[in-house]
Structures are given as C-alpha cells and as structure tokens.
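Cross-check.
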Amino acid sequence: MSRGWNGGPPAGTSRNDWWCGNSTLYGFLGFSYPVEDDDCGDYSYNGFKNDFSKQKSMYNASFVRFYLPVCKQTSFWVNAIKAARDANMGLIVMIWWDWGQNDPAMTAAENAFLGVFSDNEVGPIAQYIVHSVEFGDELGEEGNYWLSRMQTFKTKLAAHNIPLTITDDWDRGVYQSNGGLSSFGKQVNDLSDQTHAHIQPFYHPNVVVDAFSFWNYFQQQMNFLAKNLKRPIFVSQTMWAYNKDGHQRGGHDEADNMQNYQQYFATLDKECTTFKNLQIGWFFHTWFGEPGFDIIGQNGQPVCNWKPTFC
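Predicted model, tokenized:
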C-alpha cells in the first residue's frame, strides 16, 4: 500500500512518492467489503475501524475495497477514511449508483464522496488514504452511456490527484476483439488511470467445472490484462461459493461447497509467484455481507482456516 501512516507523510511528500509502485503491488492485497445497507446510520467510524483492524491483524491485508456502497452521505466516506487511516490501510472507493442508468443516483454518489475534500480533518489527507476510485460496477452491459459521465467525474477527481478506473470482467465481448481490445475497450482503457478487473471462474461453469480446474482460465485472463491494459493491475473481484445461498452457477452447482472453496483459495496461494511475476494484485471477495462468499461467517468467525501466502 503506502509507506505506512505513522502520523502521515513527511511535509512536501507527493502522492506519487507516498504510494508504492507496481512492482510491489502483487499477490493478496485485501478483501472486498460489502456496504449495501441503505441505512447510513449502520456505518460508523468504530464499525469500520474494527473490521479494518481485523482484516490487517488476521490476514495482514493492506487495502480494503468498498463494494456496492448504497449510502450517499459524505459522513459515510469521512468515517471510512478516518478508520482506514487509523488501521493503516489503503482504501479503494467505489462510486455506485444502481444497476442500470440512473443519473440522479450517480450524481448523488459522486457528490457524497467529493464532499470529503471539504472536511477539515480528512480533506487534506484523503489522497494519502484513498488509493483509487472505481466508477460503477460491471458497466460493460451499459454500452457507452457512462463514458462521458466518467470523463466529467474524472476531471473533478483529478483536482485531488486520485486515480479513477472501472471494475468489470474484461473477458466480456464488449471489451475484447481478436485477442486484443475492441474499439470500446480501448476507449475505456484510455479513460482509466489503472486496471481493476474481475476474474470470476465461478461464473463460467462451461469452461471451469470446479475449483480444481480453474487455473488455466484464470492465468489466461491475467495474461490478457498484463498485455493490454494499464498498470497497476488488480484482480478486484474473485470468489468461490461454499454453499448454494443465492450463488448458483447455472451448471455444475455440485461445486458449491467448502471443499471447492478451500481449493480455490489454496490454488491462488500456490500460484503466488505467478502474481509476483505478472505484478498483479488480487482481492478476496468477500469479507462479510455476501453469504456463501464471505470469509467471515454469521457467527463472526472465519468459515475456514485459510491464510494468504505472501511471496
């Protein structure tokens, strides 16, 4: 992540000098952190700080990636930035409005985050806590509707020197053509400051029967990212389900069990050197809030004894 908070960056330290470079941002980085409750009052500084501290102490995570934030109040992001600062974690923000085209919700989500820069406490430090911002989630199905809107938001965000990207599956046909980027994919890559990509073999049962046979698909996708897209590159979302609680694959559902779940993440650990060689980081999806995917169960304890490998 960054060099470590410890009271903040020395005077005169630029953002580029503060954050670690591509060559060290590989392997396991942290968890997707669902924040899907529409009651903003459910999200406090103490709640965030408790979860972020657990992610660091239990798994040595260095980033937390917010996933589907419904709350559109600046106080939500102020609490998150303070908690990330005090837990010594980098924060990846998602600007999320809804599934589909919803300009009023998009504007509200953007303004809620941009409001942090007017906060006396976190405004001056936000660029040293917020590593990057993801614009929407899985926008490939929306065509070019959002491109101009992303450009407008990027201009506003650039005033605070924070990179902007999207987070999506880059194996969608809308992004690829003949083994490279489509015209649309090139537009998105040009507009993005870095790459946050979903690689989700769980949702490709026609190619990946179970978690004992996914690695070829996963590595092919990483090779495509490394060849075609901007760095740094993060696999921002990858998962396997340990039950059938709403996560059916549309085939080969017999692979939704703890044995496959453990095998999936054990394989990612085993291939740590591949992530290092490709200089690609990855996020475990999810911490808590997506039953069947979560590493933390309903009882507040880990669902298995998985620990990440660092190479």
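The longest helix spans residues 45-59. The chain has one domain: 25-284. Passed to J.P. for a second look.
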